[in-house]
Amino acid sequence: MTNIKPRFFINLKKILAITIGIYSINGFAQSANEFPSKPIRLIVGFAAGGGSDTSARLIAPKFSEYIGQPVIIENKPGAGGNLASEFIVKAPADGYTILLTTIGSLAINPNMPEGTSFDPLKDFSMITQGVTFSNILVVKADSSIKNLKDFINAGKDKKGFVTFGSSGNGSTGHLAGELLKIRSGMNAQHINYKGGGPAMNDLLGGNITAIFASTPTAIPFIEAGKLRAIGVTGPKRAVALPNVPTIAEQGYPGYQAENWYAFVGPPKMPQEVVAKLNTALTKAMKDPETLDRLHRVGLEASPNTPSELLNYVKSENDSWGKIIKKIQWEK
């Protein structure tokens, strides 16, 4: 009798463990199959009014329609998008909290001297790429700077003081300016903001000389006559600004700093949930209404598969890592 009781309790523990395990697996599968059953939070790592915020708000209506639930946009600015990325890494991996992130968090910031607390290739569930676009070098419409040559000459004038703002350290707007400094030999001080919106406010207020702004941030002000566009950072002219030449066209062949955003989630999201999010976002970005809204502000929809996005992030990490090392070496 002394041996029966311990064996009974050991077997009971095994039965309970197996039962709980089966229940947990079935419950997990059931929740993935029922996804989504409540609103989805779409986190944006920059302040309202910037390029990523604008993109999220243009895509969200159709995303909500195709996913079948409300999509609530929440801005969490700071550290060039890193704060939002750190938040997502720790969020529940159930698909109800996802992030519209940037090239900065996924490919640039990890290569910066200070690095990041997360690994973009391991700590996110890739969902789909969002949009691609160029940055636009803009100054105030009443500025004495009329073109790129004037801007560079102002940066070479020892009596002058040229500043350029961006949505954060490590953003393409920041690196676009650093690349131009290297290629042209001009001097310019970078001013770091928590988003394209705050940077734009300071430019309009006359507190800085220029911004390498995202197209959705810049175009409304260009069309309103408040800003003058003097150069496009991408490999080709922006569809919405066909008369503005690229920086490469203006004497700096090979100059290129293209921007892109992507949708990611917390690590280890169920594949079924990722697939549903990918399908809904892809349909949303391919919808004619969304495409029209995006094109009006110079954005190109570029949805892809999770594996394609992962490979693209790897490639961009390698490319920007080499550029950042060159910038540091030149300094």
Tell me briefly what this model is.
With 331 residues, the chain is an alpha/beta fold. It has eleven helices and ten strands.
Structural description of this entry:
Helix 6 (172-184) links the parallel strand 5 and strand 6. The chain folds into 2 domains: 33-133 and 260-330, 3-Layer(aba) Sandwich (D-Maltodextrin-Binding Protein, domain 2); 134-250, D-Maltodextrin-Binding Protein, domain 2 (3-Layer(aba) Sandwich), CATH 3.40.190.10. Helices cover 46% and strands 18% of the residues. Strands 1, 2, 3, 4, 5, 6, 7, 8, 9 and 10 form a 10-stranded mixed beta sheet that branches. The protein has 331 residues and is an alpha/beta fold. The model is unreliable at 16-30 (pLDDT under 50). The protein has helices at residues 4-34, 51-67, 82-89, 103-108, 148-156, 172-184, 196-204, 215-223, 271-286, 288-296, 306-330, and strands at residues 40-44, 71-75, 97-102, 125-140, 163-166, 189-192, 210-214, 227-232, 258-265, 300-301. The chain has 11 helices and 10 strands. The protein starts with a helix and ends with a helix. It is globular. Helix 2 packs across helix 9 and helix 2 (51-67) runs antiparallel to helix 10.
